[in-house]
Write a structure and sequence with these properties.
Layout lengths: L2 H9 L4 E4 L2 E4 L6 H15 L9 E5 L7 E5 L1 H15 L6 E3 L6 H13 L3 E3 L2 H5 L14 E4 L1 H7 L3 H7 L4 E4 L6 H9 L4 E7 L4 E5 L14 E2 L3 E6 L13 E7 L14 E10 L5 E6 L4 E3 L2 E3 L1 H10 L7 E7 L3 E8 L8 H8 L10 E4 L13 H10 L3 H4 L3
Parallel strand pairs: 2-3, 5-6, 5-7, 7-8, 8-9, 19-20
Antiparallel strand pairs: 1-2, 3-4, 9-10, 10-11, 12-13, 13-14, 14-15, 16-17, 18-19
Helix pairs in contact: 3-4
Length: 399
């Protein structure tokens, strides 16, 4: 895709602002603080910064939180689109898209369709949830859909929507871990799930299952796509670790960002994600290194505890964080949105029985809303604050 064609497509999203030769995507519903930061950054562009590789700036939290911009261009995005086609063996990418264009997954859905001459059909999530599904045309390459785990959970509750999901070549699941109970429910319903992994800095997915791998029992993120190489490295030294080892995920490839706005260019991306590669080259993500809870000197991966809690059937959504504690350093706390009725503590304790005692939540807190973005990613800092202010419903009921 040539730059002029790409720029025209970007501006057509209605989320783009062009300043000083750079084009920025902006969330129309961003906070006042983010809008102020956006104006500050784009004002610098208007003052004549030299435009080089990475003229297209996509909003991201980066690896340190807060609003940042990941710089891409026609070469990084074309590499991502081409790698997608090669990985899935399609010449035309057709997408039913429920994600906003300022988010990388929604944005790249549009790019892949435009670059390959495929069809792009936009629908809001509320429309799909209400059963308002569009009629999709027949095509040899099939259709793709991207969802976060909680969206998949809601759609599995209706036989009608399950039938709709079965029509896709692949239903991508990303933005958060797919807990075992939900994975098995999707497999039982014969939904063509494909677990994937990627981020703004890599122009969306760089690892993905191929159709049929999930149905065969694979619960990894799949293998790297043709445009990317995944390495598992030691955090302190950057040394590449052997297969089966747990370490930090590093990504090398043609779709990797040119760097963050106003920062030097990079050739590889050291993520904040903990993962491992098996003997078949399949990637499993274990969580974020900054999310790891150190309690009593021992490490707890929140995703492991969250999966156990989801298996209890007592939660529609749940997240685990570490909050400051005088005795343990950090205490493991489970947070969940309001629900009807009391928690069934026996079911929860049974689900947690397979975990070591130090991994089990010391407190359960009801929060009005788990702070997740449109991709389902959790703002753990905000959740810690909510957890500190919350009250354990078991304490209110005298347990």
């Amino acid at each position: 895709m040539e730059r002029a064609e790409l720029k025209k497509l970007v501006l057509a999203t209605g989320c783009a602002v062009e300043r000083g030769g750079y084009v920025f995507l902006q969330d129309p519903k961003s906070s006042a603080v983010e809008q102020e930061e956006f104006l500050r950054v784009t004002d610098l562009a208007a003052r004549g910064n030299k435009v080089d590789d990475g003229w297209l700036c996509l909003p991201t939290g980066g690896t340190s939180g807060g609003l940042r911009f990941s710089r891409h261009d026609e070469r990084t995005l074309s590499a991502a689109a081409q790698g997608f086609c090669e990985h899935f063996g399609v010449s035309h990418v057709n997408v039913l898209d429920v994600l906003p264009p300022h988010h990388v997954s929604g944005f790249m859905a549009r790019i892949r369709c435009a670059a390959t001459g495929g069809e792009h059909v936009a629908r809001s999530w509320k429309q799909l949830e209400a059963g308002e599904w569009p009629k999709l045309s027949g095509t040899a390459d099939g259709w793709f859909l991207s969802l976060v785990p909680t969206q998949l959970q809601r759609l599995l509750g209706s036989a009608t929507t399950v039938a709709q999901l079965k029509q896709f070549r692949a239903v991508f699941i990303g933005g958060g871990p797919l807990w075992p109970e939900l994975a098995e429910a999707a497999a039982t319903a014969d939904v063509p799930v494909a677990i994937c992994y990627g981020m703004t800095e890599t122009a969306a997915m760089v690892v993905a299952q191929k159709p049929g791998e999930f149905a065969s029992g694979d619960r990894s993120c799949g293998r790297p796509m043709p445009h990317a190489r995944i390495e598992i490295v030691e955090e302190a030294t950057g040394e590449i670790l052997p297969q089966g080892s747990t370490g930090i995920v590093r990504i090398v490839g043609e779709s990797v960002t040119r760097g963050y706005w106003s920062e030097k260019a990079i050739t590889s991306l050291l993520t904040d994600d903990l993962g491992r590669l098996d003997a078949q080259g399949r990637l499993t993500i274990l969580g974020r290194r900054d999310a790891v809870i150190i309690t009593g000197g021992k490490k707890v991966h929140p995703t492991e505890v969250e999966a156990a809690l989801q298996a209890s059937g007592e939660f529609t959504d749940v997240a685990v964080v570490g909050v400051p504690d005088e005795v343990w350093g950090s205490a493991v706390v489970a947070c969940f949105p309001p629900r009807e009725g009391k928690l069934n503590t026996q079911k929860i304790e049974a689900a947690l029985a397979g975990l070591a005692g130090y991994k089990r939540p010391k407190k359960f807190v009801v929060v009005s809303n788990l702070p997740r973005n449109a991709q389902g990613k959790l703002n753990r800092a905000a959740l810690v604050a909510a957890a500190l202010a919350g009250v354990d419903p078991r304490e209110q009921a005298g347990r």
